[in-house]
Amino acid sequence: MPLSSSAVPRHTPRGGGLTRLLRREARFVLYAAAALIAVFSPANYSRPVRQATAQAVCFSAWQALPGYALLSVLAGAVLTHIVAVSAASYGLSHLALEAVVRVYVVELLPLAAALFVAMRSGLDALGRLSRERARGADFGTPALFRQQVAPGVAANLLAVIVLTLTSGLLVLAVAYLVVYGVTPWGLTYYTRLVGQVFDPVTAPVLLLKIFLFGAAVAIAPLAVVLDAPYRAASGSEMRAMARLLFLLVTIEGAALVLLHF
Amino acid sequence: MTDSQPDPLTAEPPRPPIPHAGAKTVAMVLMTLLLLAGFVLYVMFARGVFEETQRLVLLAENSEGVTIGMDMTFSGFALGRVRRIELGEDGKAHIHIDIPTRDARWLRTSSVFTLERGVVGGAKLRAHTGLLDDPPLPDGARRDVLIGDATAGIPQLVTSLRELADNLVRITADESPLNAGIANFRTVTGGLTGPRGALDGLLGTAGAQRIHESLEQTNRLLAQTNTRLYGKDGLMDDAQRATGELNALLADVRASLKKTDALLDEARGIAVNARVATADLDALRSEVETSLRRVSGLIEEVNRKWPFARERELKLP
Q1: Has residue B245 been placed in a domain?
Q2: Which residue of B has its CA nearest to A51?
Q3: Contact B1 A3 (CB under 8 A)
């Protein structure tokens, strides 16, 4: 099956709608897999590709990191305070930190980082690719694939991982400070609590979920490169975002199944 | 994939270049790897991977509420962590607990272990050591755990509540004594608003009727008594007249008593005179006795000198 989309006819004569859909999805999966493999292939990073990747990573992650980290820390501090005060009023203060870590750090932050990167860098990449595709660019060619597709995928993937890890660790620190204040005497209990939350199942599942969220955000815009030029010109944002949301929900559901069942 | 160059006429204009993008990317990748490694190491440290531990096996009747990774506390401090739970050959739950060697000094051979289950919240494993001078708990020790279950009383409580509900249903049934009592009470309270008030409820209709008739007779008697007592020429008028006559009589008696007092004064004067006369009489008697003794002496003298007369009897006046 060719990865190039230039060979896709305007009207496929064979099969019904479902067949065409499945064929298109299979082509997308192959193309996304090729993009991810290219991202993790050192031989792919020639000098121009490295420069393009560095530019994309700086745009997706470096520039977004301070603002996102600040927002995450503020939201984490407010949420921790609210949860701590509410739990204390019910005599459940020993559960407040655990609830914050389980809900905010494990569940909400990865999803928020993925959506943030998708809205900021993903839509930008989608717009650039769709405009290129509308002009007839063939992203199946190795040069365009390496120059314009792989850097964006690597950048978005790395951005999700960096934003999630950084903000998560910062929120862990801020939650400790909000509950205990600037004192080292709660560290033992807090470390034990973190150890209880990130048990041998939760920690790997969380890391895997972050990686899969990054991969989903990275490959979601790629669907447009498989579209015909006329279709890419008609606007692909909604389809790409719907696909992304479907992927994110699927990953989240799978993670919940792994964690709790 | 075919190897072809992008058409420069259709290529998207590049984004403005970010300075030092390569260095920033390397720094970010390194930071990500460091964060990842730090997070993993921290979690491993928090999980006690780097600690030397000793094993303690607690035997419980059931392990309900005990979860892998939960803490065992001593004086409120986490001392060990549940590593494994298994059903032993003896039918008891075997709870394997890893205790860091540096904390194992708080556990002695005489330590007591409890598993407490509250109504709210999960189960709690606690260790209690009364005698810290006892020998340390050996590695791999097996101890029975005492179970304190706050929810154990719930079935009994439910049974009691069911009995209470049955009793309530029985009490509030249509033919229940409470309903009959309420009906009677309603009858009594209804009678309170009737013409004879509470008497109907207390004495019944017949008794209330008799009481009512007695009251009417009493009222008539009181009216007649009023007429006889306070009416014209009634008993009170007679008494008032009698009182006036009694006052006049008393005035007469007072005057008579005054006269009697005067008579008594005169009698007292007479008595005084009589007492004085009695004193004079005593002196006279003394003189008479003296005179008699002299006469007696004289007679005895005469008799001694008069030999014919032997009559020596003396007759006093």
Answers
A1: no
A2: B22
A3: yes
- A50 and chain B in contact, CB less than 8 A: yes
How confident is the model over A85-100, as a mean pLDDT?
87
The Cβ of residue A126 has, within 10 Å, a number of other Cβ atoms equal to 26
B26 in any annotated domain: no
Nearest CA in chain A to B16: A55
Query: Could you report the predicted ipTM of this complex, rounded to two decimals?
Result: 0.84
Contact (CB<8Å) B1/A55? no
Contact between A245 and A122 under an 8 Å Cβ cutoff? The reply is no
Do the Cβ atoms of A195 and B18 come within 8 Å? no
Instruction: Report yes or no: B3 at the A interface, CB cutoff 8 Å.
Output: yes
The confidence score (pLDDT) of residue A132 equals 78
- Do A213 and A248 contact (CB within 8 A), yes or no? yes
pLDDT tens per residue, range B39-94: 999 999 988 888 888 999 999 988 888 888 888 999 888 888 898 999 989 889 99
**Residue B224 falls inside a structural domain:** no
Which pLDDT tens digit goes with each residue over B82-94? 989 999 898 899 9
Strand partners, B55: B98
B96 and B161 in one domain?
Answer: no
Gap from A14 CA to chain B (nearest CA, Å)? 23
Contact B71 A51 (CB under 8 A): no
Q: For residue A10, is pLDDT > 50?
A: no
Question: Residue B275: is its pLDDT beyond 80?
Answer: yes
Three-class DSSP category at B15: coil
Number of domains forming the structure of chain B: 3
Residue of B nearest to A50 (CA): B22
Higher-confidence residue of B147 and A184: namely A184
Report the alpha-carbon distance of residue A116 to residue A123 in Å, rounded.
10
| Mutation choice for B interface testing from A6, A39, A58, A224 by most B CBs within 10 A | A58
Residue A84 within any structural domain of the chain:
yes
Shortest alpha-carbon distance between residue A108 and chain B (Å): 18
Query: Long-range CB contacts (< 8 A, 24+ apart) of A12-17?
Result: none
Whether A148 is covered by a domain: the verdict is yes
Same-domain pairing of B300 and B263: yes
Question: Is B43 an 8 Å CB contact of chain A?
Answer: yes
Flag whether B274 is in a domain: yes
Domain span including residue B158: 153-193
Whether the CB of B33 is below 8 Å from some CB of chain A: the reply is: no
pLDDT of residue A8: 45
Same domain? For B75 and B100 the reply is yes
* Alpha carbons A120 and A117: distance in angstroms, whole number: 5
Nearest chain B CA: its distance from A7 CA (Å): 11
Q: Which residue of B has its CA nearest to A34?
A: B1
**pLDDT value at residue A14:** 56
Is the Cβ pair B29, A142 closer than 8 Å? no
E strand or H helix at B79: strand B77-87
At B252 the three-state DSSP class reads: helix
Instruction: Tell whether B119 lies on the interface with A, counting CB pairs under 8 A.
Output: no
Domain that residue A194 falls in:
17-260
H-only helix segments in chain B: 21-46, 154-171, 177-192, 198-230, 235-305
- Count of structural domains within chain A: 1
Tokens 């509410």, residue? A86
